[in-house]
Design a protein that fits this description.
InterPro entries: G_ENGA (IPR031166), GTP-bd (IPR006073), GTPase_Der (IPR016484), KH_dom-like (IPR032859), KH_dom-like_a/b (IPR015946), P-loop_NTPase (IPR027417), Small_GTP-bd (IPR005225)
CATH class of the largest domain: Alpha Beta
GO molecular function: GTP binding
Structural class: alpha/beta
Shape: elongated
Organism: Limimonas halophila
Strand order of the largest sheet: 2-3-4-1-5-6-7
Bound molecules: guanosine-5'-diphosphate
Largest sheet: 7 strands, mixed
Number of strands: 17
CATH architecture of the largest domain: 3-Layer(aba) Sandwich
Function: GTPase that plays an essential role in the late steps of ribosome biogenesis.
Distance between the termini: 21 Å
Number of domains: 3
Family: Belongs to the TRAFAC class TrmE-Era-EngA-EngB-Septin-like GTPase superfamily. EngA (Der) GTPase family.
Radius of gyration: 28 Å
Strand content: 15-25%
Number of helices: 12
CATH superfamily of the largest domain: P-loop containing nucleotide triphosphate hydrolases
Length: 448
């Protein structure tokens, strides 16, 4: 779902000027419904940090098959149908015309939020028109100038408030969809790592040993081998094991390909098992892959394989843990499993770790608990001062989505929260709600 902003108004009030100001680069001319010959303009709109779909109806003037009045009615009805907010533009210098009133009638009948922009308000020539616009009964108008950028801040504030309400309504829908999905969700697992760390051996062992295996249907597609099975009643799917088919290629290329394959597989996975060789530990490439998994918001499990080949298994495990702690400090508690794909030792613990990581990754925390938590952590370690020495104030927190856990924190100076404070909040949240090893996302926003 995209937040949709429609611009309506009679010809020449300045709609196109505003449209171009808000439109991003990808300006699209979209064919209208068959039978209606007009084109609708559509673009990705942006105003400061707000992004939206922007629509207006161009070419109104050229249409000659109906009266202006009926065409306008049609235009506003259509805009209203698809819009989450309507920007109704007037020319303040011309004052309110009968055509404007026609639009206003239609908009009043709709239940969509409307923002009245009295345009061309730079200077004093628009003053009378601005006050007249109150009489349309569509709320307080914004004194605006699309050409000079006047009133943009106020437009932002109004849009922002409407957008927040819209988002909350839709988040509620998303959460429902999420939990429905979770019931029958297939855990998508990718096994990645450098060549020769033992991925194929491990996968074969895993699939061969899982007692609940429902006979792997290895479907060979052009780009990946796909395997479906169950583990403890949970459907699982192994995604994109493409790396294994590239054996024949030369070794140095293989190294690069392994990273590329891993990055590709991450896209399709919920959980990524990064396999490392216990005799070698984690190298730069492994950490690069681990970093990408977290950045892409996937759950990570690190496998220390070939544990049979090292004298001190505990030391090997500790070395990997230490390396993760220093090189991936933003995600504490990444699960590390040591095993031997060759001998089968400890292999059964991997799928349990994967399921656990998946569960954490899909966690939803109740809003009251979050807000209780927020007031406690901000009291015990108050946020720093932001701009002009004013202390940043946190108002409330919600979790709009899981997979990965994503939190919106409403605060007074969203852009001023320093990284150190974010890390503090993240670590506390991770600890207090038991979210080890999973990527956590924070979004700072101004309250409504
Ligand atoms: P549209 O037909 O509603 O899309 O209107 P346009 O964007 O094509 O603008 C119509 C005319 O109004 C053009 O000559 C614009 O230059 C002018 N115009 C647009 N915005 C402003 C404004 O903020 N102030 C003034 N004075 N003129 C404007
Ligand atoms: P891949 O390239 O990551 O798929 O690695 P393979 O599964 O093909 O294994 C590469 C080599 O490591 C092979 O010679 C395997 O026999 C060996 N190997 C795989 N797993 C283990 C293990 O757990 N212990 C030991 N000692 N060797 C292993």
């Amino acid at each position: 779902m995209t937040f949709t902003v429609a611009v309506v108004g009679r010809p020449n009030v300045g709609k196109s000027t505003l449209f171009n100001r808000l439109a991003g680069k990808r300006l699209a001319l979209v064919d209208d419904t068959p039978g209606v010959t007009r084109d609708r303009r559509e673009a990705d709109g942006k105003l400061f940090d707000l992004t939206f779909r922007l629509v207006d109806t161009a070419g109104l003037e050229e249409a000659d098959h109906a009266s202006l009045a009926s065409r306008m009615r049609e235009q506003s009805q259509r805009a209203v149908e698809e819009a989450d907010v309507v920007l109704f533009m007037l020319d303040a210098r011309a004052g309110i015309t009968p055509s404007d009133e026609l639009f206003a009638d239609e908009l009043r009948k709709s239940d969509r939020p409307v923002i009245v922009l009295t345009n061309k308000c730079e200077g004093s020539a628009g003053e009378a028109g601005f006050y007249e616009a109150y009489e349309l009964g569509l709320g307080e108008p914004v004194a605006f100038s699309g050409e000079h950028g006047h009133g943009i801040d106020e437009l932002y504030d109004r849009l922002h408030a409407i957008h927040e309400a819209w988002r909350e309504a839709h988040d509620a829908e998303d959460v429902e969809a999420d939990s429905e999905e979770a019931g029958q969700d297939v855990v998508q697992l990718a096994v990645v790592g450098r060549p020769n760390v033992g991925k194929s051996t491990l996968i074969n062992r895993l699939l061969g040993e899982d007692r609940l295996l429902t006979g792997p249907e290895a479907g060979l597609t052009r780009d990946a081998i796909r395997v479906d099975w169950h583990h403890k009643g949970q459907p699982m799917r192994l995604v994109d094991t493409a790396g294994q088919r590239r054996r024949a290629r030369v070794q140095d290329k293989l190294e690069q390909l392994a990273v590329q394959d891993a990055l590709h597989a991450i896209n399709f996975a919920h959980v990524v098992a990064l396999v490392a060789d216990a005799t070698e530990g984690l190298d730069r490439q492994d950490l690069h892959i681990a970093q990408s998994v977290i950045e892409e918001g996937r759950a990570l499990v690190v496998v220390v394989n070939k544990i049979d080949a090292v004298a001190d298994a505990d030391a090997a495990l500790r070395a990997v843990r230490d390396r993760l702690k220093t090189s991936l400090p933003q995600v504490r508690g990444v699960p590390v499993v040591s095993l031997s794909g060759l001998t089968g030792r400890n292999v059964e613990t991997l799928l349990d770790a994967v399921l656990r990581a998946y569960k954490i990754w899909t966690t939803k925390v109740a809003t009251p608990d979050l807000n209780q938590w927020l007031s406690e952590v901000t009291a015990s370690h108050p946020p720093p001062r932001g701009r002009y020495g004013k202390r940043i104030r946190f108002k409330y927190i919600t979790q709009p989505k899981a997979r990965p856990p994503t939190f919106t924190l409403f605060c007074s100076q969203p852009t001023e929260v320093p990284g150190s404070y974010t890390r503090y909040l993240e670590n506390e949240l991770r600890h207090d709600f038991d979210l080890p090893g999973t990527p956590i996302r924070f979004i700072y926003k101004r309250p409504k």
